[in-house]
Amino acid sequence: MEQSLDEISIADACRDGVITSEELLAESGESFGDLVQACGEMAARLVDAYGGTRLYVPCQLDPGGRLAQELGEQSARTLISLCEGEDVVVPRLMSLRRMIRNKKIVALHANGASPPKLALHFNLTERQIQSILRRHRAGAERNTV
Signal sequence span per UniProt (predicted)? Predict the structure, then answer.
């Protein structure tokens, strides 16, 4: 089963500790960063559901609507209280998704997954996998020196 960058969940990565709230904030930009600071979990779900779009935030919540379904009713209410009647530009955060993917590759490799299997799973070439692993090793060596 292949996993593309668009299929990587920012919300899951935050919840699982793969990325920190500081990393999410750093990649979010100034305007979206305000939402991340107000409620990081809600902002991460927003990116997963609406990344790359401009989202109109209604004045009232429709409990059966897409916003409530995608974010959960409480998170949708939080968003409405912060941005009622506004258009919110929701970033895709592809650089953050790439960072998450690379961390997963390193972890899976450390647990015994071979570069060919990782390449198939993440729809990359073996050369790309080796490059990701090499960059990680170089970064780890710099941190220990």
Answer: none
